[in-house]
């Protein structure tokens, strides 16, 4: 089975789902540090989950406009492999955090219309990769993790000077088409592998990874 599409399972909160993701063949596992999220984890829980992660599952911390003290508390206690910045972090802030923590940084970019793509170039040289996600609706409590997709034709075969990952409303049923339409080599999912908000489902995780690899 071809495995060239890399999968990230985000919003892990239980050891069994960390293992389900790794066993299924996901290469990234995400921990959400954002109080308003149903997937929010404490530093202590994230540390336990990260220590559970087998070699081969890169551990990603998702933060939203986090301040230095919050980031220090996370990064001093949790063994991590990547930072996902899912707020309004500027290119300068992205570059600053990348230099300070010495970890690869993935910057989320919300997309709803063609004009949203214009901001991407400013992050070349600041971020290591991009997360191309659906823009959250006005007034949404969460800037991501809403199970909403965007018009994939907007990113059809786009060339950007840094690697990118597709996110937003992906499910086991639509990830194959999403990959086909966008040419994404990496995909990220949260809501689409849950039985209820914040409740991951091991069977859905397996189905998602299998569909992405197919
Ligand atoms: O998952 C969350 O709770 C979350 C909270 C705040 C910012 C981002 C969040 N999740 C990220 O959003 C995208 C898409 O999620 P979904 O599959 O549409 O539910 C994904 O990258 C998550 O990492």
Give a summary of the structure in a few sentences.
Helices cover 29% and strands 21% of the residues.
Identify the notable features of this structure and list them briefly.
N-(5'-phosphoribosyl)anthranilate isomerase; TIM Barrel; 6 helices; binds the ligand O=C(O)c1ccccc1N[C@@H]1O[C@H](COP(=O)(O)O)[C@@H](O)[C@H]1O; 21% strand; two-stranded antiparallel ribbon; amino-acid biosynthesis; PRAI_dom; EC 5.3.1.24; eight-stranded parallel β-sheet; alpha/beta; 214 residues; globular; 10 strands
Overview of the structural elements:
This protein is α/β, with parallel strands linked by helices. The protein has one domain (6-213): Alpha-Beta Barrel (TIM Barrel), CATH 3.20.20.70. It is 29% helix and 21% strand. It has helices spanning 15-24, 43-52, 68-77, 91-101, 175-182, 202-213, and strands spanning 6-9, 28-33, 58-63, 82-85, 105-111, 129-134, 164-166, 186-189, 194-196, 199-200. It has an eight-stranded parallel sheet with strand order 7-6-5-4-3-2-1-8. Helix 1 (15-24) runs parallel beside helix 6 (202-213). The structure holds the ligand O=C(O)c1ccccc1N[C@@H]1O[C@H](COP(=O)(O)O)[C@@H](O)[C@H]1O. Ligand LGQLAAA5 binds at residues 10-11, 30, 32, 34, 37, 39, 62, 64, 86, 131, 133, 142-148, 167-170, 188-192.
